Fold these 3 entries.
Entry 1:
Amino acid sequence: MFVITADQVDSRHRLDIASTAVSELNERWRPRLVLPVDRTAGDEIQLMPVDGATMLEIVLHLTRTDAWSVGCAIGAVATPLPENTREATGPAFIDARDAVDAAKKRDTRFALRGPGAELEPLIDLVLLLRGRRSPEGWELYDRLVDGMTQTDAAAALGITPQAASKRTRAASIRAELAATVTLASLLDRVDDAETTATTMEAAS
């Protein structure tokens, strides 16, 4: 299973946004979460995405600003599952805890621990690319990921299709979207392999 632990950056000197984040994430992603997002200790939140694509989407969402350090893990979770994410346990939760501690010391504010940790540098590349995106690039990105065509997005932004094409290239939007599809597939493969290994170990 996938586990994300996120900790608010510099919470002593910032407004508490953990409760707002819990509500926002549950509203937007609840059908794609194993259990509802929970606030755990202090300003920390925890969640269990159902697949690699969801995990990656949430990582990209949380790291878009400098508000969160995000740790992720793939692995076994103790069953039967409790009603609340904060009560869940297992190796994936331990790894996610290690990951968020590591993320606090990294430029991307992200870390991946446990099985699949070798994918961390590839996700870092996507995060670094996003970190260089201009506000104008984000305007176009948001419309494209919401399902607009590039032509419609250009009209909505009041720019020509040619200008939108140049902005798309400058913001590396197509490269990011292609990379995240592949990364999501790789994350799912790691999860499938881990699930198979855990099942075989339990049966032996």
Entry 2:
Amino acid sequence: MKSRSPIILFTYLRIDNLKNTIQYLVNNHGVNEYDLFIFSDGPKYQKDQILIDEIRKYLKTITGFKSITITESKSNKGLAISVIYGVSEVLKNYDRAIVLEDDLITSSNFLEFMDASLNQYENKSEVISISGYSFPNIYNKNSDAYLLNRSWSWGWATWRNRWETIDWQANTYAVFSKDQKLKKQFSALGSDVNLMLKRQMGGKLDSWLIRFVFHQFQVKGITVYPTISKVTNNGWDEFASNNKGSGFRFKTDFDQSSNLNFKFPETLEINPEAQRKFLSRNGIRVRIKNKMIDFISYIFG
């Protein structure tokens, strides 16, 4: 059996969510065999220092892992730079990594699924990432996973040889932005991707993920998803970097089983039904419905 993949955890201001993330992570099978690398971002405003000091005091009390390495930033890097820097640093010494943020709750078999997937697809260069999160009701009756052409950032994993090929400057964007055919093809990954990429390149969004997805589109990369989600997101609060509102459209089934043996698809083919259901969750109608629900909740409390 291969050695365990390192876990990378990014945290900023959310002490209660962070404690939940750690609590569920510690309940994972075999967690004492995993090295944990924590990156604590620095204050954006002076008032944030109190919360950050509290978080860093808590970080020093964490136990249950094979080893724990904490990196404390003096200044505020922001989420995108923090992730790109942190993952790149850890992958200098490892050939793969499992990545989390401080607003995620994981199932007890999350780490086992991620490591099993990393082992299964290590030599399949088409697969560039593993997702621990899955939208509900996207089932593959013949296996415990399915394949899509878009990555997701709520508990994910990748390999060094995939990560190091990404152009974080997106130098091809200028040509891409003028090609309507390419933009239409890109929109097949979701109704939100073109606008997200445009905002990122215009300095109005702080996202490493949309650049990762853009790279994935260019290389025709594949992401592995669990049929039943191993992750839920608990980060819909005032400290969220990019998550806004109630998160209605992201509510999902959560794996409560103790399954540690996973069956994967026999071929690297994207299931059309899974793709359709995924896109419907990221379509304009569902996004509008989600915004309406958030608005009504805000008005009527």
Entry 3:
Amino acid sequence: MFPKILLVDDESASRAALETLLRREGFEVHDASGGAAALAECVSFRPDLVLLDVLMPGMSGFEVCKRIKAAPETRLTPVVLITGLSATEDRIKGINAGADDFLSKPIDFNELLARTRSLIKLKHYTDELENAESVLFSLALSIEARDPYTRGHCDRLSEMSTSLGEKLGVPEEDVIALRRAGIVHDVGKVAVPDSILLKPGPLSPEEIEVMRKHPVVGEQICEPLKTFRLVLPIIRHHHERYDGSGYPDHLRGAEIPLTARILQLADVYDALTTDRPYRKADTSDIALGIMQEEAARGWWDRDLLEAFRTMIRDVHASNADHQSPLRTRSSPA
């Protein structure tokens, strides 16, 4: 499969010359003469790289670049701005638009080839990372599907955790980690046999030990992904308790990462407010009361639980007339 390049320039002679040279080097090339056509090609052609002239009538290259980088389906596509402008402010404008590189006119074709190949190689690496993340998410959802009582559990945890993280003002990268962790936090249960995972009654001590290995297994599964650097502590520590009685590392208090403490509250609430084979779901108020009693015993961060309780009640109040994922009865951890 040939690497795909989208060439955008309003001058037909320039497009034709570059297109011929690039095709000789083994690239598949599409072209566009303006901004609107370029954006349409980005969606339909899905290029590995966009070579984009800055000075075009109508929509400038800066604006086209900005729109490519703003769209979820094309935001990771490398964009090289081709410009005769040399002023520093124009370069800064290009950087602010999201450009990955610049080429100055007249174009040195050897330089163009070197930068093109480098950026396409990086794009393919990024695609592999995204594919790996997709596989992990699919695996996590397939594990959830093993148990009919956990349907929607991952999505609810992802939403509740990110909502609480945003309410607390945690950094954006931690909010993203919470969103991902909500989906993959139990991926380690792939190593738990159905006879244990789906057992309708209490587990034996030996079965509990098998179940308690899943946070470490989940961390090991996700560890190769560098983009999951902030997700790993959440996966490993979402079953710790504030008094040190949790697992796998018996961390205490602030030793437990804040993001893990956030997700564990969502996980516990989701477990209490779902139907299980051996008991009916608790109402939201009863579940929050149980969690307060557990916090009094030292299990949970009291201040964090108060913020979580406020968030849940606010959501219930603002969505009294329609269903919201934060107010549905949820599934077991």
